[in-house]
Amino acid sequence: MKYPIETDRFALRDxxxxxxxxxxxxxVDEEVMRxxxxxxxxxxxxxxxxxxxERGHYAERGWxxxxxxxxxxxxxxxxxxxxxxxxxxxxEELEVAYILARDAWGRGYATEAAAAVRDVGRTIHPNxxx
Length: 130
Fold this sequence. Notes:
By secondary structure, this protein is an alpha+beta fold. It has helices at about 20-25, 30-35, 45-60, 110-125; strands spanning about 5, 10-15, 65-70, 75-90, 90-100. The protein is built from four helices and five strands; from the N terminus they run E-E-H-H-H-E-E-E-H.
């Protein structure tokens, strides 16, 4: 990982093949996926493709979406990272994106992880005003 990210409660790390089952459980959960993309659960097979895509992003540019893990337990509770949009009204933009397992909701985890990723995004795309 080119951009190690840690907060008081989390460590974000590169996705690995061993994360497929945990990620698949999130992607098939209708409530977790309700506001992601077009909304709705994804097949469990999508997890492998997400991991492969993100590992390609790490190799190509050093960043992407990372496994979000609890520092104390090491348990993966979601993904948080940056998505590159190459052409938003003629400009490249980065978006902070996250998915959290339902049992991780309501604890401020998304806010904490997203703020840390946002700060990394500012080093990658320093002209961003957001």
